Amino acid sequence: MLNIVETIKKIAFEIENAIQTEDLGYSDSENSSGEEQLKLDVKSDLIIEKAFTNVSSVKALVSEEKKGVMEMNPNGEYTLCYDPLDGSSLVDVNLSVGSIFGIYKGELKGENLIASAYIVYGPRVEMVYVERDMKPLLYGGYQETFRELGEITLDEKGKLNGPGGTQQNWSKTHKNFIDRLFQEGYRLRYSGGMVPDLHQILLKGGGLFSYPATTDKPNGKLRQLFEVIPFALIYEQAGGEAINDKGERLLELVPSHPHDTSPCFFGSKYEINALKEAYGRD
Ligand code: AHG
Ligand code: MN
Ligand code: MN
Hints:
By secondary structure, the protein is an alpha+beta fold. It has six helices and 15 strands.
């Protein structure tokens, strides 16, 4: 495990360097979710693949930018599921982006996630890492090394609201709920990159990030194995909750395909309880 975490730290500075220096154009290919790949998506994916070729504990890789499962060391224990560059379409407008990693042991499902990490490439590079029995730890990157900055704990109730998805395509229930939060005084904080959006809510004490089912995306947009489930562990271990629109824990999701998506809600206890009430799942 130590090797995997050390490799992720190294990757962070390589991807940061690619963001600073590489061409921002599109490649001529699409990923499994039918999205056009930027050259930076492909490059970041290759950086990660290359870095893990020599890590013997990794059995397989599952990437947002790869079709299926990529077998690595047959004697390895862990499968690493990752989004190499989340929010990559925000690089050309110079907003923050990220990388997300889920480390699974055994079958690829929520309950087998044993650790997760994400990196934020913003004005600074930061990393958050968590395992099942610890609080998430925040690291700051300085001169190609990470320094531990402390544990992350969510308050019972926050102040921020990050509502994803096209509003026109929200359900009435969802719209009423989001309106209610604003009426209670919540402030809008939404950049369109789930890593910086979820990071902000975590570090500012709490609130709600949602990417609901919409009429155009009935299963939501965000992908279970490398976006939704890794962040669910981080939110739960920080003292918050992470559920789908049925009120089920995202950490209990069982994807039937590596690129399956799920409606998702991450927040502190107060907002998630309010959501369950609004959705009739309490
Ligand atoms: P990616 O760049 O890896 O495809 O993911 C982008 C995700 C996520 O970061 C964000 O919350 C969401 O897409 C926003 O999507 P829309 O703007 O399409 O609603
Ligand atoms: Mn993503
Ligand atoms: Mn991505």
